[in-house]
User: Which sequence fits this backbone?
């Protein structure tokens, strides 16, 4: 008698946290068997009519440790710094959302300042 393979369902959840008219947090994560497996948390700014990532943290790449992309500008253009994280996906997801909510003002101010300096 053949055994039936059981398909494990993965649920994807997405939502947006508006901070003000031109700032928001976008959250996306997958849950498998009640456990967060993959996530992405992004802080976005609407600048010159376009939404831009200011900071994005994720563990969505296979074989790559959880990390954050922190963006800024220089005279040469937009640049990216990577910061690596440690922890369980569910713990990191919760901590990142809280961190983005608490510190979005200073993160975005630094981004805008680097943008303005790069235009001089």
Assistant:
């Amino acid at each position: 008698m053949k055994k039936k393979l059981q398909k494990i369902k993965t649920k994807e959840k997405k939502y947006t946290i508006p901070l003000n008219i031109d700032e928001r947090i976008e959250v996306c994560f997958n849950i498998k068997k009640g456990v967060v497996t993959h996530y992405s948390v992004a802080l976005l700014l609407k600048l010159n009519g376009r939404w831009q990532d200011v900071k994005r943290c994720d563990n969505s790449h296979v074989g790559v440790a959880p990390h954050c992309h922190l963006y800024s500008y220089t005279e040469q253009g937009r640049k990216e710094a990577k910061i690596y994280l440690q922890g369980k996906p569910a713990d990191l997801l919760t901590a990142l959302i809280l961190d983005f909510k608490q510190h979005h003002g200073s993160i975005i101010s630094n981004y805008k300042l680097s943008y303005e300096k790069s235009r001089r």
Summary: The mean pLDDT is 91. The beta strands are 10-20, 23-32, 35-47, 50-58, 67-74, 77-84. DSSP finds one helix and six strands in the chain. The helical segments are 89-118.
